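It is worth pausing here to work through a concrete case rather than discussing structure prediction in the abstract. The textbook approach is simple: state the sequence, then state the predicted structure, then interpret. We follow exactly that order.
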Amino acid sequence: MSKFKNTKSIQLPEISTASLPDIVFMLLFFFMVATVMRDDTLLVKNELPFADQVEKLDNKSLIMNIYAGKPNSRYKNIGTEARIQLNDKFSDVNDIKAFILAERTSKREQLRPFLITSLRVDSDTNMGLVGDIKKELRKVQALKINYTARTGEAADNFKP
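Step two, the predicted structure:
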């Protein structure tokens, strides 16, 4: 009788792959639920100004974004003047009223008083365009306005 057993004769059982499709589908559903899709494709230059007193908004589903800035390099055929972007297309100041009304009707009645219009204005855009946007927002009683900015010192906005 020997004290040592022969370990070469023992075989390991095969790994079961029966649950592999379940694991793959579970991972697929996890990433589908956890991934946030980008809402808008930027058509305008959007280098936000700096601000030193910045607050984060909690509920992003209540925010209506209006972008303003010069067209990106891909859209130089449109011109170099600052333009307004609503959703995924260039728009005129007169289109803001229809945009706000459409966004309001897409939300539930209980949430409509809490809607916030977020102005994402490029730092090089002149204030005349911003003033025109604000006039149109007043016409449709969209008085809750948020200016989106980056965290930093306000003095950083002045370029040498």
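Step three, interpretation. Strands lie at 50-51, 63-69, 83-86, 89-91, 116-121, 145-147, 150-151. The chain has three helices and seven strands.
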